[in-house]
Amino acid sequence: MKWHCTSLLAGLIAIIAVPAPAQPASGSSVLTTPHFAFYSDLATNVHDALITAATARRSEQPELFTAGVHRACFDGIAASDRDGWTRAVEYYTAGRSTRLQRVLQRLELAGLVQRDGLSDAADRQFLEEWAAVRDAAAPAYRQCRWPAQDAVNRGWIEGVKPLLAAHETTLGEQLPALFKAPWAGLPFRVDVVETALPVGGDSARPDFPTLHILVSSTNSGNQDRAALEVVFHEASHFLAGPWSPLSTALAAAAEESGFNPPGDLVHQVHFFMTGETVRRVLARAGEPSYTAYLYAHKLFSDRFRDAAARAWPAYLNGTRTLTDAARDLVRMLRETLRPDPPAVCDDCAAWNQPRMPFKIFGNTYYVGPAGVSSVLIASNAGLILVDGALPQSAPLIDANIRALGFHTEDIKLILNGHAHYDHAGGIAALQRFTGARVAAGAPGVAPLTAGKPTLDDPQVAYANSGFPPVANVRGVRDGEILRVGDVAVTAHRTPGHTPGSTTWTWRSCEDARCLDIVYADSISAVSFPGFRFTGDATHPSLVPALRASIAKVSALPCDIMIGAHPSVSNLDGKVKRRTEHPEGDNPFVDAAACRTLAQTMSKALDARIESERAAR
Fold this sequence. Notes:
Elements: E1 6-8, H1 11-14, E2 31-32, E3 36-39, H2 42-58, H3 68-76, H4 79-94, H5 99-109, H6 121-144, H7 146-179, E4 188-193, E5 201-204, E6 212-216, H8 226-236, H9 245-257, H10 265-284, H11 293-296, H12 302-311, H13 313-316, H14 322-333, H15 348-351, E7 358-361, E8 364-366, E9 375-379, E10 382-386, H16 394-403, E11 411-415, H17 421-424, H18 427-434, E12 437-441, H19 445-450, E13 473-476, E14 481-484, E15 487-493, E16 502-510, E17 513-520, H20 543-555, E18 560-563, H21 571-580, H22 593-614
Parallel strand pairs: 1-5, 3-4, 4-6, 10-11, 11-12, 12-13, 17-18
Antiparallel strand pairs: 2-3, 5-6, 7-8, 8-9, 9-10, 14-15, 15-16, 16-17
Helix pairs in contact: 2-4, 2-6, 4-6, 7-8, 7-10, 8-10, 9-14, 12-14, 20-22
């Protein structure tokens, strides 16, 4: 897992009434330096473990004490201790707390909030109830997990100790000078825990000057020299709050240009500034080359990383003011998506006709052109795009996403149905623009990376079959689940049309109604003239694979089916019905749609087989 901090600052914590700094939490720090006090605290780690167990349970993943050596220990402890842990996981899984109350939990554990000082009786009651639940879970955790985890936490702290000894003074002086804001409330408490979900590290601030930091000791992104950047990045949230000079400069530049930046631009620049400062300090000290986290893990969009690398070093070098750097960055970010050269085919012009984007159901939207589908799924942590249509479709998809009120730059994951120019053609440009991950069925990785179908593709012989190559494609297995925030998308291998063809499914909710949505990739027997699906001396029959794929699509839970080409799911007819009867039932909801598609494709395959036999 990669680290990516979450800041819980500003208005959320400002409403916490704390009359004076609370008393320090029990226990002594493992390491205290001028800027940080590192703790490996039992109660905080119990809280972290319960959050992790509840998250695993909600996503039906293995959780602590359900397998292996931990299960053996758990089964051997007192029944009352097991019950205390089990009830606590159930309590955390139910998730009845508000966001503010979840922040209060960590601040109380850190000694930065006094329960009796809170003005809201509901918050006081919640913390009392939660503490009792957490305390009941502690014996099981203490017996079966804590000794090992405490050792890992202390090992992580021991690893960051020499880095701080060598570089803390320099970074502690340079960062407030660059952010143009002073430190206060040092040393900041850093609680080291196992996971620090959801992203491996975050910070929270009470309403007096200090900061609380959580950091994962096991997250792969937090190790070695990156640990130095992690702790100073989190600490720099104190310097980059909503009313900081950095925030003010970026807001003024955006307002001046009439530009609405995607995402949290302050946080993105904060990432660049801290990481680049750490990189420079390490380099000046003669350390081996270090790549700042922003670039090592390709956070945010390619466009932002490129713009920051061009606009911000001049400010760090002292040759541009903070105001100038903010203006330079905003100007560069206003540059538009750059498409690749267009594909040329008989149907390309008709396929790429503009189509107004629209909601299909819940968090699912159609954003593609007229003749090839592209679907947007909105999560609470970014966007997912299914297919990129033609190379020349990328600007149209970008415009459609923005017309719906979303930012294309917020796409975190692009999924491909199959590697043909009319479905994968726009992916390279969209990936460059957004920095999104790209995923496809495992056999689809090679053609996407090469920008052309593989030799076992029935359409490889077409002269115009190439498309812009896609970088860093992840191959997924049948049944694998990919997640962005609260959205889980499942891959279903459906080979035949191409070797890597993959159908994607997810759940979408609208109010209290949740439905199964299927993006049905092509399961048609379409090929270059002369190719035989029934097989010949050059390749085996593809009929069994296609029949299995057709049967798989037919059997999927399917309330709404979206085809790789809109005509497959009669999209035009459904849009017309919705337009004519806006108050009627959603025309896209059709529990028989996948079975109907399968029946149609099965008949077409039978016809293809007969024609090939007749041509022998």
